[in-house]
Amino acid sequence: MRIGTRGSPLALAQAEETRLRLEEAFPELAGAIAIEIIHTTGDKIQDRPLSAIGGKGLFTKEIDEAQLEGRVDIAVHSMKDVPTYLPDGLTLAALLPREDVRDVLISSKGRSLAELPEGAVVGSASLRRAAQILRRRPDLTVIPFRGNVQTRLRKLAEGQVDATLLAMAGLNRLKLMPVEAVPLSVEEMLPAVAQGAIGITCRADDERALAILAALDHLPTRIRVTAERAFLAILDGSCRTPIAGLAELDGERLTLTGMILRPDGKEAHDVIASGIVSSAETIGRQAGQSLLDLAGPGFLAPVS
């Protein structure tokens, strides 16, 4: 079996986790799973924000093509990078147990957004993070900050910015938690849709891969991600629009909190929707529609 993945340290860690889980579930696969690095457009272009070059699909396009052409059998993705709709011929066959969904503030100049000095410069490639930061601290300056986790930590250490935000999930998977790192509550910084979730795709007609990956699928994560991605689909979300969403489970109840913002953080709308877990997709779609109705036409116009 051949696993396709991006080449960043985090992507490779996620692919390795997938390989280990496959070998645990199917000992006969031990030593027979190869990890193949596929360089994506999103990795190659580092000097511009994603919103300026086409959005999150730039991290998956070449990997999708490799699957459809049969060069790899499965692909491992950070689900927050996966477009709402997969290309024809591919399916989301498994979701691994979700990691911590929170964002982490990293700065030597403050232990919270409130503590950062007035006018501090925060580096972030995420419109969602930038909008929520500016909503709370309009005096701060947020500048584009691309690169993998290690690159952004290096830039921070060099003093290019005063602070940055990273996903707790990535830092945990890399076993790389800076001493200055402070987790932000989801009330202070609502995460990206599907943040912390690893998804595995394969060809929709690959019965062998489908059967194998079924053993890895984590139902609670799938329920939550299904609701969040249905929410995103209604809003037609991409890296061009600040959208945040988180579904949480409490027994047989699912509650989804969603938010849309102007890029400058000056206007925001939020929603809370809940229901039984079997209605996850419906809950997500209804939450998305509620926000569309609240915001009115034109709120989610692409960023120029």
What does this structure look like?
The chain has ten helices and 13 strands. By secondary structure, the protein is α/β, with parallel strands linked by helices. It has three domains: 116 residues, D-Maltodextrin-Binding Protein, domain 2 (3-Layer(aba) Sandwich); 81 residues, 3-Layer(aba) Sandwich (D-Maltodextrin-Binding Protein, domain 2); 64 residues, 2-Layer Sandwich (Double Stranded RNA Binding Domain), CATH 3.30.160. The strands form three sheets. It has a five-stranded mixed sheet with strand order 2-1-3-10-4, with helices on both faces. The chain has a five-stranded mixed sheet with strand order 7-6-8-5-9, with helices on both faces. A three-stranded antiparallel sheet has the order 11-12-13. The radius of gyration is 19 Å and the shape is globular.
Protein traits:
alpha/beta; D-Maltodextrin-Binding Protein, domain 2; Double Stranded RNA Binding Domain; 5-stranded mixed β-sheet; 304 residues
In short:
With 304 residues, the protein is α/β, with parallel strands linked by helices. The chain has three domains: 116 residues, 3-Layer(aba) Sandwich (D-Maltodextrin-Binding Protein, domain 2); 81 residues, D-Maltodextrin-Binding Protein, domain 2 (3-Layer(aba) Sandwich), CATH 3.40.190.10; 64 residues, Porphobilinogen deaminase, C-terminal domain (Double Stranded RNA Binding Domain), CATH 3.30.160.40.
In spatial order, strands of the major sheet run 2-1-3-10-4
General form: globular
The proportion of strand residues reads: 15-25%
CATH domain class of the largest domain: Alpha Beta
Order of helix and strand elements from N to C terminus: EHEHHHEEEEHEHEHEEHHEEEH
CATH architecture of the largest domain: 3-Layer(aba) Sandwich
Alpha carbon gyration radius: 19 Å
Structural class: alpha/beta
- Summarize the biggest pleated sheet: 5 strands, mixed
The beta-strand count equals 13
What is the domain tally?
3
What is the arithmetic mean of pLDDT?
A: 92
Distance between the termini: 42 Å
CATH topology of the largest domain: D-Maltodextrin-Binding Protein, domain 2
* CATH superfamily heading of the largest domain: Periplasmic binding protein-like II
Into which percent range does the helicity of residues fall? 25-40%
